[in-house]
Design a protein that fits this description.
Elements: H1 2-23, E1 35-37, E2 41-47, E3 50-63, H2 69-72, H3 76-89, E4 93-94, E5 97-101, H4 103-118, E6 123-133
Antiparallel strand pairs: 1-3, 2-3, 3-6, 4-5
Helix pairs in contact: 3-4
C-alpha cells in the first residue's frame, strides 16, 4: 500500500512540475516577430513604355511590436493596389532582366505604400519570398 502511494505521489509531483514549467514564460526568449503574408500579386514589367512581362511575387511584411496581423490585414488590398500602380510608373526590372524584379526597389515601394495606407511605423521591413515570371525568357536586347 505504501509503495502505491509513493508512486502516485511521485507521478503527481512530476506532472505538476511539468505543467508549472510549461506555464511559466521564459524571460530570456526574445518575443517572436509578427508577420503578415500579402496575397500573391502579379506586377507588370514595363520598359520603354511597353509591357514586357509579368512577375508574380510573394511578399511578407514584418510588423512593429504591438501590431497584430488581424489589424493590418484589411490594408492588404490597398497595399497591393499601390504596388501595381507604382509598377506601371517605375521600371522594377533587375538590370534589364525582364524575368526578375529589383528587390530593393520593390521593398522600398512596399514600405512607402504600407506607410501611407496602414500608418507610419506599422511595418518595420518587407521580405520578398518568391518571384515567378510569366515568361521564363526575356533579357533586354543590347
Amino acid at each position: 500500500m505504501r509503495r502505491r502511494d509513493l508512486i502516485a505521489a511521485g507521478t503527481v509531483l512530476v506532472a505538476s512540475a511539468t505543467a508549472a514549467a510549461a506555464a511559466a514564460p521564459s524571460s530570456d526568449a526574445p518575443p517572436e516577430a509578427v508577420t503578415l503574408n500579402l496575397v500573391p500579386l502579379g506586377l507588370p514589367v514595363i520598359t520603354e513604355g511597353r509591357l514586357r512581362n509579368y512577375v508574380f511575387v510573394n511578399l511578407r511584411l514584418l510588423l512593429a511590436s504591438g501590431q497584430t496581423a488581424e489589424a493590418v490585414r484589411p490594408h492588404d488590398p490597398f497595399i497591393r493596389d499601390a504596388l501595381v500602380k507604382a509598377a506601371h510608373r517605375v521600371d522594377f526590372s533587375a538590370g534589364g532582366d525582364w524575368t526578375r524584379l529589383n528587390e530593393r526597389m520593390l521593398t522600398a515601394a512596399t514600405m512607402a505604400a504600407a506607410r501611407v495606407v496602414a500608418g507610419d511605423g506599422v511595418v518595420t521591413s518587407v521580405e520578398v519570398q518568391n518571384q515567378a515570371p510569366r515568361r521564363r525568357t526575356g533579357m533586354r536586347p543590347n
